[in-house]
Amino acid sequence: MTSTQHAPTPDSGTRPIELGFALVDERELAAFARHERLTRDDYLDQLGEARDYVALPDDAEPTHFFLGSEFCEHLLPSVEAIDRAVALCERWDLTFGLVTPIACDGLFDPLRAALARLPAGAEVTVNDWGVARFVQREFPDLRPVAGRLLGKMLKDPRLPSATWARMYPNGLRAGPFRDILDGLGIGRLELDFPPFGAADMYAGIDFPVGVRAPYGYIAKGRICKMGSLSLDTPEKFSPGHKCRRECLGFNEIGARPGTHELPTSQRGNTMYYRHAKGMAAAVAEAVKNGWVSRIVLSGA
Fold first, then answer.
1. Tag placement on the chain: N or C end, fewer CB within 10 Å?
2. Which stretch of DSSP H or E encloses residue 31?
3. What is the pLDDT of residue 66?
4. b/e per residue 214-225 (b: at least 16 CB within 10 A)
5. Residues of the chain under the 70 pLDDT cut
């Protein structure tokens, strides 16, 4: 298998950083639609107080807009919402990207309908190897991006020190992993910045890297805690019940007073941690050195 090299060029650290915003709830498109063009402040304002945990280069301006969920098949955007988002991106002169989750068998028909609405050159963030193959075979004019669920690394916010993090390095530089990405036509990686990470953790990944900020995901499961609260006891915390998208209205905050742990939260089936300010500075250093070429802002 022949690999295409994607190593950063010598001046990559001086190029303007790509900046995206990832929206999960399609109903919130209306808040963006009133803008004739989008600025970095429009993106940051969507984060609320969490914007204090993002450090962007001075020249960072919006280049991408994403819609969809990485973690739940019930949150695949409707084709109507996709059409609206694509039209808005054309108006804003931004690249549109559809974000897709791990897929059950029943997702492929609605996913096919969703992908058919995308213009050539649009990005598809894939978090399922089967979806990556599906995009490659049926939609070769789209650009697949490996999502966070495919870039495995240790991200437990309870880690007591950097020593523990170093004991379990990631395999992002492994040749077989790279071969899989190349074989699926994937041209970019989207990753988290983990607890006790350092800017140079992205050095040597000869692939364009984007980082999500200011929240990383810890773990996801199939069971939606919030979606189970209204169910009868025998049905609670089991897959298969009708989704009413309760997660879009509620976010559970976790706290362990007296510990060093990062702030955590749970939305639906996924747990998140919020970056500390030192982590934001490390991401900015990675950008400056050309190891990260895109920052994608998103909530938890």
1. N
2. helix 29-33
3. 98
4. bbbbbebeeebb
5. 1-15, 238-241
